[in-house]
Design goal:
The protein contains 13 helices and two strands. The protein is mainly α. The longest helix has 17 residues. It starts with a helix and ends with a helix.
Length: 266
């Protein structure tokens, strides 16, 4: 009986824990709706951006001569070879069942996916029929190895650990969804705490403090900067190919969080 107050405290703490943030549509029960939600997330999260619109694989960053050939695999052909546990390790931990290292996989942000969103994404991926041809494995050149030795390049698993320790500020329940969306999308280019990443030519997202509502919405759907300013092509590509698939309420939540973060940093 002496332990009863302690047990009650644990129960109250569990019941009062903040609900898990998820993208709109994550609460779907019907299998078809779950798959539909996962299909949208495959665009929002950039799966189709790296692995191609049909997920048959692609050569990533072909215009960057400093990189050795880095191919995003043909998911339609490889997914069937992985168990759910192996797929989870690849997506959320950056650990491949057979390769020594995994490069380019944004597991550092996917580790923060909510359970409903992750399950929907996998449900969609499991519906894809095999097609196309296999893509070559990544091949590191001399410059790649020099960057790795200098600590300028990291494996997916290494980035998972780094990002886990440095997350953007928690500004309360009002901004929970916006912070979540920023964590699983914006962090991939702008860094674990959204303070910018010069390697990606990505600025601190405190810059959103200078964006009015309409300018931000145009940025996220058309890739056009405030005042019509031309942005880095990567942002324009991400806006049109990924963020345009956010729902209006998701874009509103992201804007609210990034504005609040910018204000808090002043």
């Amino acid at each position: 009986m002496r332990r009863l107050p302690f047990v009650l405290c644990l129960i109250v703490a569990a019941c009062s824990r903040a609900p898990e943030a998820s993208f709109d549509g994550a609460g779907a029960d019907a299998p078809a709706k779950v798959v539909e939600h996962g299909a949208r997330l495959s665009r929002v999260l950039g799966c189709t951006g790296c692995h191609g619109p049909t997920l048959q694989g692609s050569l990533m960053a072909p215009g960057r001569p400093l990189d050795g050939p880095l191919y995003a695999s043909n998911l339609t052909l490889v997914l069937g070879h992985y168990s759910d546990r192996q797929l989870d390790a690849i997506i959320r931990s950056g650990l491949h069942p057979s390769r020594r290292n995994l490069w380019g996989m944004p597991s550092q942000v996917f580790q923060f996916l909510s359970s409903p969103d992750y399950k929907a994404l996998v449900a969609f991926l499991r519906t894809i029929k095999p097609s196309g041809r296999p893509e070559p494995l990544p091949r590191l050149d001399k410059i790649d190895r020099q960057r790795i030795a200098a600590g300028a390049a990291h494996t997916a698993a290494q980035l998972v650990d780094q990002f886990k320790q440095h997350q953007p500020p928690d500004l309360g329940s009002r901004y929970r969804l916006g912070r979540y969306i920023a964590s699983v999308t914006c962090e991939g280019c702008h860094g674990s705490n959204l303070a910018g990443d010069p390697n990606n030519r990505a600025p601190d997202l405190a810059i959103v403090g200078a964006y009015g509502h309409d300018d931000f919405m145009r940025l996220m759907t058309q890739g056009i900067g405030a005042g019509g300013r031309t942005l880095d092509p990567m942002m324009t590509y991400a806006a049109r190919g990924r963020f345009s698939h956010l729902t209006p309420s998701e874009r509103e939540a992201l804007y609210a969080y990034l504005k609040a973060r910018a204000t808090a940093a002043q």
